[in-house]
Write a sequence for this structure.
């Protein structure tokens, strides 16, 4: 999907893991991100939140997350040939 994990600097195109939650900052969002909270192996909550002040905005039953880039290339195909 093209997202990079960065637990210290949360910016567009990154994900971070904090305890039982995963934050996803899609590049097509401006000032909000998605938080998925877990209880064990089950999803407990999905909601959008403001990145700056961590304010919960809207709860969702499901959410579609698109790739970070429209170009997804596997490592094998990314190798240049001589």
């Amino acid at each position: 999907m093209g997202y990079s994990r960065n637990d210290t600097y949360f910016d567009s195109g990154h994900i971070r893991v904090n305890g039982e939650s995963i934050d996803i900052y899609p590049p097509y969002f401006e000032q909000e991100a998605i938080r998925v909270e877990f209880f064990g192996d089950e999803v407990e909550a999905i909601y959008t939140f403001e990145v700056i002040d961590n304010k919960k905005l809207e709860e969702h039953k499901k959410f579609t997350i698109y790739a970070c880039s429209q170009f997804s290339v596997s490592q094998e195909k990314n190798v240049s040939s001589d």
Observations:
- The chain has one domain: 4-67.
- The mean pLDDT is 85.
